[in-house]
Amino acid sequence: ISVTDLKRDHALFSLSTPTYDNRWDYKPNTWHSICTTWDSVTGLVQIWFDGKPSIRKFVHSGAITQTVIVLLGQDQDSHGGRFDINQSFVGMITDVHMWYYTLSPCEIQNYMDKGSFTPGNVLNWKALDFQIIGNVLIENQTDYVYCI
């Protein structure tokens, strides 16, 4: 879940192997939730954006056998490198999880609704081992109150 006021291209999430990379872009000044599923056996992929699923598509299948580098807030123009400051994320990020299995639609909806869900077993937001580079502020998550 994230929010930013950036109007330029930027990367929220970047996953790269030596032969594959991907990133997602979205509208500024609005909290968005993004969930992507990929089944390595079938190659079926689906993106859930703000709780709404996209159509499912087939991409490449097969296990990832190469080294994977996952970055939050910065795009990788090459595997683990060639960073462009103009593609960096400036905003707020919370609740990033990654699982080694494909989540069911019910599990995704529970996560999106902040219901009961199993934390990620590859990346778990509450148990991340991370390195801070640059100006990063870490705060405890609070409930947001919307006033009309």
From TrEMBL:
For this chain, one GO molecular function annotation is: metal ion binding
Chief location category: secreted
- Sequence similarity: Belongs to the pentraxin family.
Instruction: Read off the InterPro entries from this record.
Output: ConA-like_dom_sf, Pentraxin_domain, PTX_dom
**What does the note under cofactor report?**
Binds 2 calcium ions per subunit.
Q: How does it assemble?
A: Homopentamer. Pentaxin (or pentraxin) have a discoid arrangement of 5 non-covalently bound subunits.
Q: What is this protein called?
A: Pentraxin family member
Listed under GO cellular component are: extracellular region
Q: Which UniProt keywords apply?
A: Calcium, Disulfide bond, Metal-binding, Secreted, Signal
Localization of this protein: Secreted
Provide an example Pfam family for this protein: Pentaxin
Calcium among keywords: yes
For the keyword tRNA processing, the answer is no
